[in-house]
Amino acid sequence: MTRVFAAVLALLAATAPLTACTHHRTFGEKVRDTVDPPQGPVEKAGRAVDRATGN
């Protein structure tokens, strides 16, 4: 149980800087989210990471 807790804590610490980004969605991103909305929390998180890293 301690290893799982440590792994989750490390993951949270690694992704914490991504939450500090103040990214304003572009027109194209808004259109994509309207036409093809993310299906579930994993895809939402994936798009957020892509936008935060500039991919």
Keywords:
55 residues, mainly alpha, Entericidin, signal
Write a concise synopsis of the structure shown.
Keywords: Signal. With 55 residues, the chain is mainly α. It is 73% helix and 0% strand.
Describe the fold and architecture.
The protein has 55 residues and is an all-alpha fold. It has one domain. The protein has 3 helices and no strands. The radius of gyration is 14 Å and the shape is elongated. The protein starts with a helix and ends with a helix. The model has no long low-confidence stretch (mean pLDDT 80). It comes from Gluconacetobacter tumulisoli. This is Entericidin.
Low-pLDDT stretches are: none
Strand fraction equals under 5%
Distance between the termini: 35 Å
Count every beta strand, where a strand is a DSSP E run of 2 or more residues. 0
Number of separate helices: 3
Task: List SSEs in N-to-C order.
Answer: HHH
Mean pLDDT score: 80
Structural domains: how many? 1
What gross morphology would you assign?
A: elongated
Radius of gyration: 14 Å
Structural class: mainly alpha
Largest sheet: none
Helix residue percentage: over 70%
Signal peptide: 1-20
Region (Disordered): 30-55
Biased composition (Basic and acidic residues): 44-55
Keywords: Signal
Helix and strand arrangement:
Blueprint: H1 2-19, H2 27-35, H3 41-53
